[in-house]
Amino acid sequence: MGRKRVSVTNESDSGRNQRFQDNYTGSNMTRSQFVREINNGSYQNYHVRNVNGIPTPVSNPDATRNNNLG
Predict the structure, then answer these.
(1) What pTM value is reported for the model?
(2) How many domains does the chain have?
(3) What does the pLDDT look like over 13-41, one tens digit per residue?
(4) What is the DSSP letter of 64?
(5) DSSP-assigned letter for residue 16
(6) 27 lies in a domain?
(7) Among 2, 23, 25, 45, which residue has the least CB neighbours within 10 Å?
(8) Does 67 reside within a domain?
(9) 38 vs 13, 14, 21, 53, 63, CA distance in Å?
């Protein structure tokens, strides 16, 4: 199994993912930076969902159970 493209590196006390690392490039991103990169087409296997009024990066569904950002 290959390593995940993006990992969460920081969560808020409520569990919202706040910081992310691209494991292929080593780039670190805030949630808003990651959202912008997804919207620009840089991360094909992710999309942005509106959760409680906040744009939130999420993994696209696939055949692997429990395969999610985290």
Answers:
(1) 0.84
(2) 1
(3) 999 999 999 999 999 999 999 999 999 99
(4) S
(5) -
(6) yes
(7) 2
(8) no
(9) 24, 23, 13, 18, 21
